Amino acid sequence: MSDDVEAEGLRERLTKQGEDTLGKLAEDLMANPLIAGAIQRAFDAREKASSAQEAALGALMLPSAADIERLTRRVRSVSQRLEGIEDGIDRLDERLGVTATSVGLDTRLEAIEVQLSALTKELAAMHKAMPAATKPTAKPASTRKQRVKVSN
User: Fold this and answer.
1) What H or E segment, with its residue span, contains residue 140?
2) How do residues 111-136 score in pLDDT, each as one tens digit?
3) Which of 63, 45, 42 has the alpha carbon at shortest distance from 54?
């Protein structure tokens, strides 16, 4: 067990020393104007090559990596917008489903109203057809004229 701990400590020290050495070497190289100039010229050449590549691909009507990246971002944006629209449509569909059940109630109420009006018409026709309905009944006593006998 102590061998593992010692090996781990040795590994950490070697790693730290290696990192320090590489950092010092990089600083020394960047301090050298000849090396710094060469690195700067290499980056400039890389940029010019990239621009030339994009121009050549454009002349051949082929998309560059940057064009494909822009297109990918736009497709992702459109996809996200489409998902939002789909969510909105789903919410509308749910609302319409609730409304459809109330439309069923409206249809039932209209059918009931039609039946009621048919029954009303039928009752009116039956009332007119009845013979007792057309003959006046006896008047109540309060409306009859009473005769008074006069004696001489």
Assistant:
1) none
2) 999 999 999 999 999 888 887 655 55
3) 63
- Average pLDDT over the chain reads 84
Are 30 and 36 in contact by the 8 Å Cβ rule? The answer is yes
Indicate the residue type of 130: M
Q: Are the beta carbons of 143 and 136 closer than 8 angstroms?
A: no
> What's this model's pTM, rounded to 2 decimal places?
0.38
d(CA 92, CA 95): 5
Please name the residue ranges forming H helices in the chain.
Answer: 2-31, 33-59, 65-129, 131-134
75-107 pLDDT, tens digit each: 999 999 999 999 999 999 888 877 766 667 778
What is residue 104's three-state secondary structure?
A: helix
Tokens matching residue 19: 């990192």
